[in-house]
Amino acid sequence: MRQTLIIMTMGLLLTQTVAAQVHDEEKYLQWRSMETGPLGFEPKFYYWLFHNNYAHHEWEWEWHGFESGFYLHLKPNKSDAKPVVPKRTLGATTDLWTKESTDSQEKDFKHQLEQETLAAADRRVDAAYQLFKDDFDNMQNKISAGLTYCLANCKGDAYVISIVNSLSNQNRFITEQVSYVHKSCNGYELENAKREECYIKLKADMEKVTQSTIDLMRYVEVSK
């Protein structure tokens, strides 16, 4: 009994497998028309008779010797049935372009973020100041000592006092700019390259004040 049941089950499965593999030409043409084209529906006479409102088959004369006559032909350009693969292909292309565009934007964003991170780190430390610090300190010592000498030895000369006040104001303005550029807290950040440009200009301005102070000292020394 058990062997009989097994044999019947295997026979049923074999029958279903064979049946599933039967080729259906009409279904094949329908699927092919929808998926890849070219359009072609069978039986043509059936579609012409019942579905020609969207299939658009037309009768055309064909010469085939003794078999010449009117044959049904599908007109793809007039048919409302269109393959869907071109749309899928276009969609896939669009998706690929979108992915490539997104990847490119992400790459640019990462590069920009890296640059901003490096720039932020550069702004937090004033490395350029060390290149000018000694020169600034030396000139400030000369200016301070020179102006003090002029005031102490000018004997109340109004001209000398006015020059001392002018040079003192110029020097204070320059030192305030140096202090501003040197700050690294929030709101004062500058890249070291920009700081260096500022220091070069401020150094030149400070050198002019230093030289003017030396010239004034010589004038006071001669006027004693």
Task: Tell me what the structure shows.
The protein is mostly helical and about 220 residues long. About 75% of the residues lie in helices and about 5% in strands. It is built from eight helices and two strands; from the N terminus they run ααααββαααα. The chain has helices at about 1-20, 25-35, 45-50, 50-55, 85-125, 130-155, 160-180, 190-224; strands at about 55-60, 70-75. A two-stranded antiparallel ribbon has the order 1-2. α6 (about 130-155) runs parallel beside α8. The radius of gyration is 47 Å and the shape is rod-shaped. The model has no long low-confidence stretch (mean pLDDT about 75).
| Low-pLDDT residue intervals, each spanning 5 or more residues | none
The SSE order reads HHHHEEHHHH
Beta-strand content bin: 5-15%
What general form does the structure show? rod-shaped
Helix content: over 70%
Q: Span between N and C termini?
A: 141 Å
> Could you describe the largest sheet, including whether it forms a barrel?
2 strands, antiparallel
Spatial arrangement of strands, main beta sheet: 1-2
SS element count, helices: 8
The radius of gyration computed from the alpha-carbon positions, rounded to a whole number of angstroms, is 47 Å
Please tell me the overall pLDDT. Answer: 75
